Amino acid sequence: MTTAPPAAQVWAPPADAPSAGGPGPGPTGPRRPKGPTAGPGLRVAGAAISILAAVLLGFVIDAGVVSDLRHARDRQVDYAAFRSDLANGTAPIGRSAAGGRAAGLGEPVAILEIPALRLREVIREGTSAEELARGAGHRRDTPLPGQAGTSVLMGRQATFGGPFRHLGELSTGDTVRLITGQGTHVYKVVAPRRAGDPQPPALAQGKGRVTLVTADGTPFMPDGILRVDAELTSEVQPGPPPGLPAGALPEDEKPMAGRADAWLPLVLWGQALVLAAAALAWAHARWGRRHTWVVGVPLLGALGLAVADQTLLLLPNLL
Fold first, then answer.
1. What is d(CA 307, CA 271) in angstroms, rounded to the nearest whole number?
2. pLDDT band per the 50, 70, 90 thresholds, residue 70
3. What is the pLDDT of residues 147-187, one digit of tens each?
């Protein structure tokens, strides 16, 4: 008698063997534990870092790139406006009994040309940090260029185009030309002077002089004030007394002064930056990193530039 073979046994994997679908028993395997979620402390730290990064990045970009572009744009606009005033005979020369018009604050009053420095700048009325952010400025308690007396022009050394950056390179005898509503006025440089240098001799009655003023020392780290005096060699033009009497110049228009009223907008822009950083920290936990960066980078960048712009106005106006 033939014995029947034993029934075929079907092999099954052990219970603890990994399945084809993944590790562990079952088709999907055990779920991996989630990573730790960011706590409130990490979110606050992330928001603080975002604020600091936005402010620093905004300051660097504003001081090094954006301010130069703004200066180039403002110079072009003011140059076109002043040339139109010259052509129409409406450029300000000061109000007097013989006629004329006084310059308003921030209005172009002259064009400065220094061939040795290849410099051409529009001079605007006023020397506060806000006015000097657009270019060189005329100190309002001094006569206009070309008129009798000492006219003082101030400009920045490094920021907003740094129009007077190379002022210290001028030498005795270099030519300085200024164009106003009364014509072209030619000056000859006497010499640059710094703190401790002798003062120029007193100006004779009916003579003219211009003094160019900027910060001295390393850019962004000034250690004094640089002045360049130049004597008027062309004909002196008649003019009324300065728009402001001696001693009436506001503090924020004096050399190395900041703009005190920039604190309020700085605080408001700073608050907006803090709120934006907090909102983005909240969004990061719900949207994810990619979506938050798409929205956050332009927003924080714009607010950082606004904060940096107000910070620049708090710095010395000759910086």
1. 10
2. confident
3. 999 999 999 999 898 999 999 999 999 999 999 999 999 99
Structure-block tokens of residue 2: 């033939």
pLDDT digits (tens, 9 = 90+) for 186-227: 999 999 999 889 999 999 999 999 999 999 998 888 899 999
Rounded Cα gap, residues 26 and 22, in angstroms = 8
Q: Which residue is listed with tokens 């076109």?
A: 80
Token representation of residue 162: 């740094």
- The pairing of beta strand 183-193 with beta strand 175-180: antiparallel
Q: Alpha-carbon dihedral of residues 185, 190, 192, 196, nearest 10 degrees?
A: -130
8 A C-beta contact, residue 159 and residue 134: no
Per-residue pLDDT reduced to its tens digit, 15-40 = 555 545 445 454 555 555 554 555 56
Residue among 152, 73, 126 at smallest CA distance from 259:
126
With beta carbons less than 8 A apart as the criterion, state whether 107 and 92 touch: yes
**Per the structure block, which two tokens stand in for 234?**
């062309």
Distance CA 213, CA 192 (A): 10
Structure letter (DSSP) for residue 206: T
Q: What residues are paired with 237 via a beta bridge?
A: 147
Rounded Cα distance between 71 and 68, Å, is 5
Q: Which residues contact 204 (CB under 8 A, 6 or more apart)?
A: none
**Alpha carbon distance 141, 154 (integer Å):** 13
Tell me how crowded residue 262 is: count the other CB atoms within 10 A of its CB: 19
N-to-C CA span, the chain: 115
What is the C-alpha R_g of the chain?
Answer: 34
Q: Using the Cα atoms of residue 200, residue 124, residue 250 and residue 247 in order, give the sign of their dihedral.
A: positive
